[in-house]
Write a structure and sequence with these properties.
Layout: H1 5-26, H2 32-37, H3 44-70, H4 76-97, H5 107-112, H6 115-148, H7 152-200, H8 205-210, H9 212-215, H10 228-234, H11 239-255, H12 258-264, H13 270-302, H14 312-319, H15 325-357, H16 366-390, H17 398-422, H18 428-447, H19 456-480
């Protein structure tokens, strides 16, 4: 697997350049709010691009093509659900977030219910984000250790160290601007890879896609009714599960996850925040379509191989692409990886500082608080490294593994937000019991594999809403006796 000096030069210059840019554009932070919210001066379109980069990352670059290589284009059904979910968040969640001075997604829960609910939601986010982004970090290390012939552990540490450098110095503003640039870098890398795939496969594009072994892979819509009721709910990528599951996943990730909400709160006002969010839904459809088509082209080029699906695209990049192009696409891979990792580090740090530390320790020493925030940044970078080590031996496609982890707690979290928005009579204890009940139910659903992961969030939301509202009704009746 030859990587030329030119490729190494491109990769190294890119990593140095992006780190320097993050530090410069982030400017000097004087307060915790500067560090974690970015003074609310970032343009909406920059935030939109940065959200796309943060949420898709290496899973788009590696695992989505690998998924299409193994199966077909059914995953694309989810992206239309993603757009629906973002429209709902823009209409109902964001106005609630912009009432008052909110610094995290969980500030709303404190205003609506109290400190205990905010702390519970924040802690849940910390565990979920650490686990799911540990998977993402490991996915990023796959092509690096294949390319450099080093251990996966060393590769993971290198990537985390680069992300930490510009996150530590530039704060959330630096992270957002860097991510916006990196979106174009990795999309450009995918387009380049697609062009080289087409040029290396005999025949024109129309002939390639109409071949008998390829045409079946172009299936987008899967109604899923041909396998009975149990079979329908066990399939992750049907039209209904895609639209419903995708919408609820997007509502939870873009409405309750600090990784995304932190960026939306960095816009100048509510109108710009809405524009940024809905625009991401449109971009994401085209982006996923691009990476899925790359996966189909990889199958047309290689045929069936006995390797992990997540290693197919890295194999093509390293073994087939010419010098220079290889370096650009690997830089694009790092761009995809660093965007999510940097976002995770700053969102985890901000959640601890703003949700768990400052509400209970009313320190007005901004210099000290800023120092603690930066130390938390280092701590969470280390925790993500350890999380990546844990998932190194998993044989499951990393995109499904990461989304399954997120879906496990997202339902209860989204249900708690919906309780607060839909019923003004719900009290803190009702919300907490509803949330915990959803986690318990989801534990059994996952252990016994009752349904596919795309239904997890809907189940969690339903349990939370049902328990929370029942408790409110029971409490009200007891008071009336």
């Amino acid at each position: 697997m030859q990587v030329s000096a030119l490729d190494y030069a491109i990769i190294i210059l890119y990593l140095i350049g992006i780190t320097a840019f993050g530090k410069i554009i982030g400017g000097r932070q004087k307060t915790v709010k500067d560090y974690f919210v970015g003074k609310k001066e970032v343009p909406w379109w920059v935030i939109s691009f940065s959200i796309v980069a943060a949420e898709t990352s290496t899973l788009t670059f590696i695992s989505i093509p690998g998924l299409a290589y193994l199966t077909n284009l059914n995953f694309l059904q989810l992206t239309f659900g993603y757009l629906i979910g973002r429209i709902i968040v823009a209409q109902y969640f964001l106005p609630a977030y912009y009432k008052g001075e909110l610094s995290t997604a969980y500030s709303y829960l404190q205003n609506r219910f109290g400190n205990k609910t905010r702390s519970l939601a924040s802690v849940t986010f910390l565990f979920t984000r650490t686990a799911s982004d540990g998977v993402r970090l490991f996915a990023t290390a796959i092509p690096l250790y294949l390319m450099l012939d080093i251990s996966p552990i060393v590769a993971i540490i290198i990537i985390a160290a680069v992300a930490l450098l510009y996150t530590f110095t530039g704060g959330v503003k630096g992270v957002i601007w860097v991510d916006a640039i990196q979106m174009f870098i990795y999309i450009g890398g995918a387009v380049l890879a697609g062009i080289f795939l087409i040029n290396n496969i005999s025949g024109n594009l129309g002939g390639i896609l109409s071949a008998e072994n390829i045409s079946s892979k172009l299936s987008i819509v899967n109604l899923g009714f041909d396998k009975g009721l149990a079979g329908f709910f066990s399939q992750p990528y049907t039209l209904l599960s895609g639209l419903i599951g995708g919408a609820f996943l997007s509502m939870s990730s873009h409405g309750t996850d600090q990784l995304i909400v932190q960026r939306l709160l960095a816009t100048k006002n509510l109108a710009e925040s809405k524009k940024a969010l809905i625009t991401t839904g449109v971009i994401i459809i085209f982006q996923f379509a691009l990476f899925l088509v790359v996966g189909v082209l990889l199958y047309a080029y290689y045929g069936s191989m006995n390797i992990k699906s997540d290693e197919v695209f890295p194999k093509f990049i390293i073994e087939v692409l010419p010098s220079g192009v290889k370096g650009i696409i690997i830089a694009g891979l790092f761009a995809a990886a660093l965007s999510t990792l940097a976002g995770s580090i700053t969102s985890l740090s901000s959640s601890v500082m703003l949700d768990l530390y400052l509400p209970f320790k009313k320190s007005i020493d901004e210099k000290k608080n800023l120092l603690i925030s930066k130390m938390l940044t280092i701590f969470w970078a280390i925790m993500l490294i350890f999380s990546a080590f844990i998932f190194m031996e998993s044989s499951k496609a990393v995109v499904e593994l990461a989304l399954s982890i997120a879906s496990f707690t997202y339902g209860g979290l989204l249900g708690t937000f919906l309780l607060g928005l839909s019923n003004k009579k719900i009290k803190q204890n009702h919300a907490i019991v509803g949330f915990i009940s959803a986690i318990i139910v989801m534990s059994f659903v996952i252990i016994f594999k009752v349904v596919a992961w795309t239904w997890f969030i809907l189940i969690g939301v339903c349990v939370t809403l049902l328990i929370g509202n029942l408790l409110e009704i029971i409490t009200r009746k007891q008071r009336s006796l």
